Amino acid sequence: MRARYKWPGGTGIITIGDDATLGDVVKELTAKTLLTNFGIKFGPPNAMKALDMNRTDQTARDLGLHGEMLTLVPHNERRSSSRQSISAERSLRPESERSQKMGSHDVKVPWSARDGTLLLRIMPSDNSCLFTAFGGALPQQVLPSKLRQMMADYIQEHADVYSEAILGVPPQQYCQAITDPDRWGGGIELSILSSIFDIKICTYDVEARREEVSDQLQTQNIISFGEGKRDQCILVYSGIHYDRIAFSYSEYPYTDAMLPPEMDRTTWPVEDEEVLTKAAELVGKLHGAHYFTNMDGLVLKCDVDGCGWIGSGQAEGQRHAEETGHTQLSEIVDTQTDAILRKCNMRGCEFIGQGDSAARRHSHDTGHENYSVIEDW
């Protein structure tokens, strides 16, 4: 029997006899991870279920564990090895963000009518990407730390507008949290920033798309904050990360931006619909390059010392944050190659795919979640 596993220190593979019991699996996992008190979850990332750890005498195959990804959930246990802690810290940085930084610089759209190039400026993956992306789009660039403090001050000055019902938490608690440099930003923050700086913020969601339009697949999900403004800027959201769209003057054939980011144009009049058309073209290329992360397919871990929580997807992560106040979540990255063949058990579906990532994409596209492993011959 073969299965992969994830835990706070990374990922791995176990290979044991076909008649191995759950107890044997637990012993093997303990030997590889040094964890002695943990639970196991398995199944599709967006529908994981907990394994009954009392069924130690039942074979792992009968429990359906062959070919599965096993997620280990430590029970109030912390490892003593500093070397393991360093390894975990490195592996828990979202793989999706690391891969996005590779190759996405090549996504540009020539704009010959304006003698330049529309391109994506990549923001650092430091939990302040939204604030860096927006602050750099302003005529007078503003640092993320200052933006956070300005937001806290603005909310306190407009307490009648930004109530607990709007913010989701008491205003005082929100103001304290938003000044934390590790606190992520989202739609509420963009709405507040739009009001502070009197600018429309257009945000493209890379993952969302629509049917063919003029023989080209284009994104459909553009969310705007701040209607009725005079100027607009354009951001790109890829599931867990924000980047900025910019225009740079360039030379024919306008495929390379030669000027530094400091010379970018990043705001346009709201009447300029052509820039949105070009931006949609650029985001369409990003979608084709799979420059997005589906949060529902991520296995997340809480980074707060002593917590040890592990869950699947954005909804579970948000619940954990609301119940505990813990907002430092990271992805447990799968660094192993999964060559296991799976077929979809939904009646009428003929999907067969290799690897967990293929099944994950199929689940996202169809909602099908029941798979069988095609055994090795």
From TrEMBL:
Localization annotation: Cytoplasm
Reactions catalysed, as given in the entry: Thiol-dependent hydrolysis of ester, thioester, amide, peptide and isopeptide bonds formed by the C-terminal Gly of ubiquitin (a 76-residue protein attached to proteins as an intracellular targeting signal)
Secreted keyword on record: no
Gene3D superfamilies: 3.90.70.80
Cellular component, GO annotation: cytosol; nucleus
GO-annotated biological processes: endoplasmic reticulum unfolded protein response; ERAD pathway; protein deubiquitination
InterPro entries: OTU1_Ubl, OTU_dom, Papain-like_cys_pep_sf
Limits of the OTU domain: 118-248
Tagged with keyword Hydrolase: yes
Basic and acidic residues bias: start-end ranges: 90-107
EC number annotated for this UniProt entry: 3.4.19.12
Function: Hydrolase that can remove conjugated ubiquitin from proteins and may therefore play an important regulatory role at the level of protein turnover by preventing degradation.
Name of the protein: Ubiquitin thioesterase OTU
Organism: Cordyceps militaris (Caterpillar fungus)
Highest classification ranks of the organism: Eukaryota, Fungi, Dikarya, Ascomycota, Pezizomycotina
